[in-house]
Every structure is written in C-alpha cells, then in structure tokens.
Model the fold of this input.
Amino acid sequence: MKKILALLLITTALHAQKTAGTIRYEYAQDWLKSIEKNKFMNNEQKQRALQTWKNDEAYKTYTQLNFNKEGSWYGVASDERGNSWEKTEYWVRRDFTQNKVLETQMISGKVYIVEDSLYTLPWKIKSEIKEVAGLSRMLATTYDSSVITP
Done:
C-alpha cells in the first residue's frame, strides 16, 4: 500500500505545472548591423558611420515577467538601471482574480494608466496536424468578435 501511495505522489508531482515564476528577457540593439542594412545611406555614408561607431557595444535592455496564480507583471527588470533619456517605464499588470489588466501608455508625451477587462479568446482545436521544426503541432484557431472587419 505504501508503494502505491508513493507511486501516486511521484506521478502527480511529475504532471503538475509550475504556476509561479520569473522569466527574464534581454533585448539587444546592434547599431552597426542596423547601419549596414540601411537602404537610405550610400556606401560612403555607411563606411563613415561604421568607422565612427565601431567601438560601441550593442545596446541592451532587460525586462522580466513575474507570474503566479493570481496575476502577472511585465516590465523593466528590477536590477535594470535604465537610461536618463528614457522618460517612462512601460509595464503591464494582469489580475486574474478580478479579470482586469492595467497598462501604461504614452500618448502625446503624457503617460496614462489604462485599465481594461481581461478576456480570453475562444480557441478551437482542429484535427489538422503538421510537423514544425521536427515537432508535431495541432492547428488551433480563434475569433475575436470585438474586431469589426469591413
């Protein structure tokens, strides 16, 4: 009986999903690559810009997503110092218990906190199966009735 109970506990733990955690994102902007791909500059202008900025490293920013059963928060990482030219901090807070979402938006140089209802789209799982990157995937579709199409 003890072996069966231990087996049940182990299999239950294996199937349980993690419902809390933190995901950290790094975004890097390499200006040298952007200059090389620029279609509006001629070769002389590109070479001059590349020579001027050759010692600069890629610009990196860090954001993080904190989530648990009650909600989630996405914004600038807590250890990110930011830049003096960055005037606002973008963040999104989702509260699953009250079905609300709060988000900062900059409109005409002013920062607003927008509150909206949190809704889920009705997904339909189809029987169509495709292989993507060596993994089998099922087709899932949804329809947003709030979007009006002409």
In short: Residues 63 and 76 are 4 Å apart (CA to CA). The first helix runs from residue 2 to 15.
